[in-house]
Amino acid sequence: MLTTHTAAWVAEFVLRQPVEDWLANEIFLALPLPSPLPFRLRHTILLHRLASDLSRCSPSLNTLHSLDLLLDDRPASSSSSSSSSSESMAVAYRAVALHCVSLSFSASNYDVFRTFVDLLRSRVADLERAGPAVLAAEPLKKLRMEIEAAVESGIFRGLLERNTSNEALDAIRVYLKAAMEELGPPFLVLAAEAVRNGIELGNPCSESSAKSDDKVKVSGVAGGVGERTSTLSLAVNGEVVLLETNPVTSSTLCDTLDRDMGNEIARKQNAVVRLGKPTDKFDPMSAPEVEKVVNALKSSCVDLHKVVVDPLPDAVMKAAEVLKNRFFGMTNDVEELEIQRQAGASGPVSAVKNRSKDNGVDEIVEQSRKNDALDVDGSMQQRKDDTVQSNREPSVEKQLDGIDNKVQAATTIHSEMKGTGISNTDGVQKRSLMDRNPTAHTFEWGEDPIESSSEKSPTSKKITLPSPKRKKASSPLTILENKKFVIRRKLKRWSSLEEETLRKAVGKHGVGNWKFILSCYSEIFEDRTEVDLKDKWRNMTRH
DNA sequence: TTAGGGGTAAGG
DNA sequence: CCTTACCCCTAA
Can you give the residue ranges of the HTH myb-type domain (predicted)? Predict the structure, then answer.
């Protein structure tokens, strides 16, 4: 039986492989991961997201968001500027932030640009107040100055001339490398290696380990439950190599193993567990077995890669082309841009106060503030319904941020792409044909007051009150003038994969968690909404 | 956010 | 004509 801790190790290992996002999702779903996620695993997930953005060459607000989370998730001990990844993190943060600013500006909607810049400013200010040392780094100081300059001048001229995308990608690449090195190899690999070499698992400070100078020791755990930090140190030939220098952790491998054995009494901070010796009170984990598991995992990943090719990148590119073409031929969008411009003209602060129902920017501003993160994906989008789409991402964020985080949607990286209007490097605002028209409204012909009163017999003395349902009198002419017709999405029949996935998901997560299910399988339920899932389930269970 | 009623259009 | 997918609305 797989325990939550071993599941975390496996998850960590899998994410360190070049595994497709959807596959990672599937594996995550199948694993009984601990809640909250261990620090190491959280970190690995976020780095995987970055790597994913990098591989698609599409730094976006989601990339910035990942960096944001990584920044917030830094263990206190590594906030010192000595951390090797701190500097590159700061550089990457700045580069990606500037790229996003540049994108938001070239999206040719100044209010959106202002909103985003304001949010970014306050975020940087928040970070500064919180005082992580990473902000002391020169690049972020520079970022703050650049943002200030942008706001003062109103225009980000310098940025538009630069290739911010490439700068961001390069910076991410550098940071990823440093962060990966800092994180060290996956725990399973270390463990397998150590066990193969005839190791001893235990506290590096304990007497027994100090004596064994011809062996490799692994101490700590790949991710202690609920711990922000984890110690993973290797002692090779008596020399201790600390991969992460936090010596104090309440949840060590010993703890984990103890818990797994149900032996609460033996749970001690400095307990030493020796593996590989038949006389142990714990079941020995033989080296060949661990090796076999690791190899099997590796080979299965490779096999899956050979068999399955992720169709999404292709699809995304094609969709981007279509949308781009459509953008230039579509006058409606110009109209909507204008509407949004007017709605947002009072600035982000007042926009929050004067929140109107149909103003997508307002909702996003408020949502962003609520989340206290730069999750302003929707700012680049024009429409309320797009905001709903982008709401999938905050669910990921919650899971990563929250204490009771669950893992299922943690790597829904593709869904981020779909929910983000500016994730592509062209920076053109996009609108899908699939989207609803926010200004569309329905009209009931049946009980028009004008109609009814005009047709009413003048002799009729009966006093009638207007139905509360009717809000205003409108003639058919007015309606024809005002009405924008709803464009139905193209009918897309449910594939058997979708049906099967829905069935499984409902079996696993229960009926009614449509939003959650959608976020878990967003790759499979492409272009579907929660309501679609609900309706489909209704259909499926009807007969 | 979801459930559920109910309407409409597409497509077999 | 029937089923399915999509859509809208309202209550909880």
Answer: 493-543
